[in-house]
Input
Amino acid sequence: MHTASIRKHCLVLALLTALASPVILADTWFPRNGGPAGIAGEHLGSSIAMSTTGLGGPTAEAANRVYVGLPYASDGTLAECGAVQVYVRDPASSYGWKYSATLYAKVRQAGAHFGASLAADSQHLIVGAPDFDANGGAIADAGRIEFYQVYGQDTPLNIIYGGGIAEFESGANFGNALAVQGGKLAVAKVHSQNGNGCVLGYIFNTTSQQWELPPGISTYACGSAGAELGASVAIQSTGTSSFLLVAGAPGETQNGNLLAGAAHVLFPNPNAATGQDWLEVGTLAADNPGAFEFFGTSVGIDNSFVYVGATGRDNGAGRVGSVTIFKPASIIGYDYLSEYFPGAPATIGGHCGASLSVDAKNSQFIVGCPDSDGVQSKEGNARLYKMFTFLGQPVWLESLLGYGNTFHSGGDSLGASVTLFDKEAFVGAPNFHFSGLSGNGAWKAFLPDKIFSDGFGP
Output
């Protein structure tokens, strides 16, 4: 289906939706008052992740820790070694969260930018240091990750260091993008092979308490020339030793269109005859791809769909960015389902799709638009999409998450990092700053309007 037809189809759906019932109106989300901010130059909020606690479904499960990266933080004489701040619930405060601890790398190094990437679930926290110099500093920007196990409740803060994995390819930036789910881990080195980019998956061994390669896997999956495969990654567990790994490749060429981008869905499947360790089960591209669309800047996956962000997609008025959703095909591969551009106010050059996070248990996802205008230029925002079924088809309703009346400044880049679960969303603003300073960084917690949370939202 061509883009113009898609827009007409979406317009008809939106009209029918509006006429059908107030039950399908999108929730209104508000930022909580206050919130943490970093020291000048630390860029708090460059990455963000959370863990959940509780069993038995969405009603019994909730976010219990928020992890926020500040990759330019220093530790004594180690400039820009990086760090991760941990926040836990604080029902007594208006913000609802309080600072608990700061994690520094076990193997600290100036300029490593520990905390540039994060991934977490209910049991694991993974932290990337993509500019770590390996072999005692002799191999520049090779990259490293460190992993932690998360235990119990918030007091004491049971986050236990488990080990690290290092890379030894100069300039590879191993750990630039991470994803973890169900004991499966995806790690990228986006600048491997002079920008082709490569990705690798791991499985957590509960006996050794270490991350190990899947059975029979010994090599990376790598992209085409200049593809930057692994600019983003997502992972979905499919069995004890199997998973689907989605890797964005925003530098890939499509039909002669430079930097059109793509995303690849990979399955670990060692084949001795071909020497290949990875089976590509889906090659995803935008509908009618064009140059400089950067499809694959962000990716997400759940049991039903694959989501791909593209910061350069054009809605007809300009390059506002978008997210395209794919569904599994009837036999193998993936079929295009729909594309969502940000609703008004949408900013040309706002880079919607720069970040993306999926909440599979609650049928929703969130997208960052860090250069979008608001009251201030390039203050940024995020868009939350909640799925419901309309005439037997999945449709996503959008909610805008912005600063509102809370304190902020221009160029904050709210939406550079995002994560969510159920009725809470967390959004990083790494360029937030106070007057006379720069690069403090901050993060905001968002909640839906309680007045309309029962019976009026999807």
Summary: The helical segments are 3-20, 192-195. The mean pLDDT is 90. The longest helix spans residues 3-20. Residues 26 and 197 are 38 Å apart (CA to CA).
